[in-house]
Design a protein that fits this description.
There is one protein chain. About 5% of the residues lie in helices and about 40% in strands. It contains 6 helices and 61 strands. The strands form 14 sheets. Strands 1, 3, 4, 6, 11, 12, 13 and 15 form an 8-stranded antiparallel β-sheet that branches. It has a 7-stranded antiparallel β-sheet with strand order 2-5-14-7-8-9-10. It is elongated.
């Protein structure tokens, strides 16, 4: 009779040899089922992981200092038959001799820092960036295998590793450097030193900077698993009209895969005449055909009768294939969720939606997404015809995938207030770009978070702010779906040449009103010049918007000469509109130095309505072309020092004599609210000083601190008849009178909409005329703020120097109503202004008034002048 104890021992050995260990941390802990022990406080369960296949939680190191830590789990294993281990690992750093990970496959001790006996996989070993199979003999180590495939010399290393042991002592190590299960063998070794153990686990050594950068998931240990899953075709890429790249889901039978009869393309293309295997990647094969495919035509490739290494046959499958050469705007940026918090109903993750404007599927493999200065490489993903793709962070992939096809990156961030986003094809050419700001929302509520920006017309991809709106969908956005604001919004406006800036004497930059066709901009024949100037070399369009082009000249430009550049009439914007034939010329010249008084502050809006922002208008009263590159707007602090100083044209701006320029943070809002005859003279600035509504100081200064002009404004300078001054600008009356003279400022007239950005002020007087010594601008005036004769100008041109003066205004009864000044020193030419107010700042009644002007000097000379003026209303006139 057989001993029952002996049979029980055999059963126990069999159970221990072939029992399975599996842990994917899906229960959110590592303290039970199974139990892990060791440095428990220095690990945690990460809420998300970078395994694209599952997005489950993972085990993550969690420390703040340099350390060596471990976790182990009891697993009694006796190597008497074939065994397999498998796990996923991610190290968000480049391993080194001070930063590496071990995964123990077999250990005779639960304490993985002890002098144990067993085997481990080392991801990075003694500074070598390869996978190693190592045997540990107490406190000594023997390297059994050094991997030949996975190169760990990267800032992030995410891979899946499989190890197989066979009963003859053979060890085989495999890896998939993409983290999937398309394994390639790293190498093999022979060793039978240890055949039993009681634990497996992880062991990590790190410096403080990498203390949280170890991730582990999907551990398996047990019998070798048998593959019963048939292979699949995962990618079909047409590299040129006769050359197709085919990728399988796993290694396949090469004898079958190299047989051309297992492939055929419809529409007369037929079978390939040659099939080749990629020398580096066992999953990739190349098919060469005799008959070429036409560009942008959808063909179908059928693949059949091909098996994997386990004998599983691929189900006959048909796959679309297209010979595609990327063109601009085949794919466009169609929606941007820059600030998902607070959420309306969508997941609180940023995203960018792409839209395929064509009728063919487009592979984005090798394309690049550029967000600001961050470059993201896109992998093997296809956008279907007229389809959408959501780009996001991996953490949000599972949730955003519920709304449509999505693709995740390991890190993903879009600046809330705006940035430039571009999509580039593999060779680096621009496919689409958008430079947005938070002003595009058109709503302070929606700009505050939770709402996306949606493109109105996807076939007008260069429409800028005019083609984007805040989402109107109740969820806050429409990822993966037709935009809620979608409408026909074509670009029918011709572009034009706006201006020229001077980089140096031989290099200019020309600026267009909108994005242009980049290929046409590269043509030297597109530009011509006056005064025998010509182009030197190739034009340099500025990526990615192509709104400006640098042009190198054949010689330096001279002084006191105005040059002209003309662009070709065939230039067009990205929508195909040819350049405006009347606006394809622009002047430039070598600028002259700016002196104090050349540029003046001409209009101030410090108390805007809710629809607009502050604006400051300046005026070039000199006869010089000047460059504003080093000019700033500022204000003064309590110690009268410059503060809040911001550039107004950091790229430069050649300002012409007699030109007005307006600076504001909301250009579109200003142009939409006020009459603006020269909208190109409104410059949007990202930052400018914050000017108090009722009182403050506006300073125009050089960046190094010298003041060009300054004005201290006050609400009392407005017309007292105005009930409110919201949205009413203060206008300078005369460019030739002192900036700091309150009487030289007045409310803009109601008849012009209470502001005159980019054109002559409604309250405006020119320089002195050629009258006698003392005269008035009018015999009557109507100070009712209607923009017509609201101010009386009083002129004096003395016949002798060194005079002092007193100016009083009396009513017809002889009572003094206004003393403009007393015993004031005056110059050779003077202009004085009366706004129709008395000394109490109240408007005087309609009637006749006597202007009494007395001059004298220290030698006893004196002379008096009297003029009569009528204060009227528009009705009494």
């Amino acid at each position: 009779m057989k001993n029952p104890l002996w049979w029980m021992l055999l059963i126990l050995i069999f159970f221990k040899s072939f029992g399975q260990f599996y842990e994917d941390f899906s229960d959110g802990n590592f303290t039970t089922n199974p139990t892990w022990q060791g440095d428990v406080s220095k690990y945690k369960i990460s809420s998300s992981t970078a395994i694209p296949s599952n997005m489950r939680p993972a085990l993550q190191s969690d420390n703040t200092v340099a350390d060596t830590t471990y976790l182990s789990s009891q697993y009694n294993l006796q190597l008497v038959d074939s065994v397999e281990w498998e796990f996923w690992i991610k190290l968000s750093f480049n391993p080194s001799s001070s930063n590496y990970a071990r995964v123990y496959l077999l250990s005779n001790n639960l304490n993985l820092t002890s002098n144990l006996q067993g085997y481990f996989i080392s991801v990075g070993y003694q500074g070598v960036d390869r996978i190693h199979l190592v045997r540990q003999d107490g406190n000594t180590f023997a390297v059994l295998l050094v991997g030949t495939v996975a190169n760990l010399n990267k800032s992030t290393n995410a891979l899946r590793i499989k190890v197989k042991w066979y009963d003859d002592g053979t060890w085989r190590v495999y890896s998939d450097t993409l983290g999937g299960d398309n394994y390639v063998m790293e190498g093999l070794a022979m060793d039978l030193s240890y055949t039993q153990g009681m634990a497996l686990g992880v062991y990590n050594c790190y410096t403080s900077s990498n203390a949280t950068k170890f991730y582990f998931d999907e551990f398996y240990a047990g019998p070798v698993r048998v593959d019963t899953i048939p292979p699949q075709v995962t990618s079909v890429k047409v590299l040129n009209p006769i050359y197709v790249q085919l990728t399988f889901s796993e290694p396949i039978n090469s004898y079958e895969a190299l047989d051309p009869s297992h492939y055929i393309i419809d529409q007369g293309i037929g079978e390939p005449w040659l099939v080749e295997k990629d020398l580096q990647n066992p999953l990739v094969y190349y098919l060469t055909f005799s008959n070429p495919m036409q560009e942008r035509t959808i063909y179908y490739l059928t693949v059949n009768q091909i098996s994997d290494l386990s004998g599983n046959y691929l189900t006959s499958s048909t796959h679309p294939c297209v010979y595609y050469v990327p063109r601009s705007y085949d794919v466009v940026i169609n929606e941007i969720m820059a600030d998902p918090t607070p959420s309306v109903t969508l997941p609180e993750y940023e995203y960018i939606e792409l839209f395929n404007t064509t009728d063919i599927p487009i592979s984005l493999d090798g394309f690049k997404l550029v967000i600001g200065t961050s470059v993201k490489n896109i992998g093997n993903v296809v956008i279907p015809p007229q389809g959408y793709l959501i780009l996001c962070d991996e953490d949000g992939l599972s949730l955003l995938s519920l709304y449509g096809q999505a693709y995740g990156f390991s890190s993903f961030s879009v600046t809330n207030t705006g940035t430039t986003i571009s999509l580039l094809e593999p060779s680096g050419s621009l496919i689409t770009t958008v430079s947005f700001t938070d002003q595009w929302y058109g709503s302070s509520l929606k700009a505050n978070g939770g709402w996306s920006l949606e493109q109105i017309d996807p076939y007008n991809p260069c429409g800028g702010a005019a083609n984007w709106k805040a989402s109107e969908d109740f969820r806050g956005g429409t990822p993966g779906q037709v935009n809620s604001v979608k409408a026909n919004n074509p670009d029918n406006i011709s572009p034009y040449l706006m201006r020229v800036t001077l980089e140096n004497d031989s290099l200019i930059c020309i600026w267009f009103s909108e994005s242009m066709d980049s290929l046409a901009l590269l043509n030297p024949a597109s530009y011509s010049f006056s005064h025998q100037l010509s182009l030197n070399g190739i034009p340099d369009p500025v990526f990615p918007e192509y709104k400006k082009v640098y042009l190198s000249l054949n010689r330096p430009i001279g002084n006191d000469t105005i040059y002209e550049v003309t662009v070709d009439f065939l230039l067009s914007d990205c929508a195909g509109n040819q350049i405006d034939s009347l606006k394809r010329k622009a002047n430039f010249a070598k600028p002259k130095p700016i002196l104090p008084g050349d540029l003046i502050i001409n209009e101030i809006l410090s108390n805007p309505t809710e629809a607009t922002e502050d604006f400051i208008e300046i005026y070039n009263k000199s006869n010089k072309i000047v460059d504003l590159k080093h000019v700033t707007l500022a204000t003064l602090d309590d110690s009268a020092h410059l503060t809040s100083q911001y550039y107004i044209c950091p790229d430069g701006y050649l300002m012409l004599p007699g030109q007005y320029l307006v600076f504001t943070k909301k250009r579109k809002a200003l142009i939409g609210y006020y009459y603006t005859p020269y909208p190109d003279w409104v410059i949007e600035v990202s930052s400018m000083p914050s000017y108090n509504n009722d009182h403050g100081t506006v300073v125009l200064a050089f960046d190094y601190g010298q003041i060009i002009d300054q004005v201290t404004y006050d609400v009392s300078m407005h017309d007292p008849r105005l009930v409110e001054t919201d949205g009413v600008s203060l206008e300078r009356i005369s460019p030739y009178l002192a900036s700091d003279e309150p009487s030289n400022w007045h409310s803009a007239a109601s008849t012009v909409g209470y502001a005159t950005p980019t054109y002559k002020n409604s309250q405006h007087f020119e320089q002195l005329g050629d009258e006698d010594e003392f005269w008035l601008s009018n015999t009557s005036f109507s100070p009712d703020n209607d923009g017509f004769e609201d101010i009386l100008a009083i002129f004096f041109k003395p016949s002798r120097p060194g005079l002092f003066a007193t100016l009083n205004i009396y009513n017809s009864s002889g009572y003094l109503v206004r003393n403009l000044f007393s015993q004031k020193s005056i110059g050779s030419e003077e202009t004085f202004l009366w706004d129709g107010k008395n000394d109490d700042n109240q408007s005087v009644p309609v009637g006749y008034y006597i202007i009494h002007f007395r001059v004298f000097d220290q030698n006893g000379y004196t002379k008096q002048y009297k003029k009569v003026v009528a204060v009227v209303t528009k009705f009494s006139k």
